[in-house]
Design a protein that fits this description.
- This protein starts with 14 loop residues before the first helix and ends in an 8-residue tail after the last helix.
- The chain is built from six helices and no strands.
- The chain is globular and about 50 Å long.
- The longest helix has 19 residues, at 96-114.
- The chain has helices at 15-25, 46-62, 64-70, 74-91, 96-114, 121-127.
- With 135 residues, the protein is mainly α.
- The relative contact order is 0.16.
Length: 135
């Protein structure tokens, strides 16, 4: 990790993605370890989803090299949404309205975050989950 510059301090989030990408570009490997145990979960409201994805959009806008080198996220997002809707249709159709709202919030947040350089600071602070980043 240190050999590729360590965790960047100037990103809103995604420092792990940045290190991983730079490691791959330096010829290093990232391994999937099936027996590793991690518990990581969020129970975000739609507004929190919007804010998180706004920040992800900001990260991608400020790291164009990442998407250029590894590809865009649009196709994967569409695949995930289709998969989620298919699952919910079969097993939990009452959750479909919530999933649609959350997906729309994520999409809007991400798209607006990608445009952050054109937005006023007070609006960026409102949209962001990480308000301190804008200080």
């Amino acid at each position: 990790m240190i050999s590729v510059g360590g965790f960047p301090e100037d990103v809103i989030l995604g420092e792990d993605m940045s290190v991983g990408a730079r490691s791959l570009m330096a010829g290093k490997h990232i391994a999937y370890v099936a027996n590793a145990t991690v518990y990581h979960s969020h129970n975000y409201t739609p507004i929190q989803e919007f804010r998180r994805y706004f920040d992800i959009g900001v990260f991608h806008a400020s790291s164009p090299w990442l998407l250029k080198r590894f590809g865009s996220v649009g196709d994967e997002g569409v695949r995930f949404a289709r998969s989620e809707m298919s699952y919910l249709w079969r097993y939990a159709p009452t959750f479909i309205p919530s999933a649609v709202i959350r997906t729309f919030a994520k999409w809007c947040g991400y798209k607006i975050g990608r445009l952050e350089s054109h937005l006023p600071l007070h609006f960026k602070r409102w949209c962001s989950m990480y308000k301190a980043y804008w200080s």
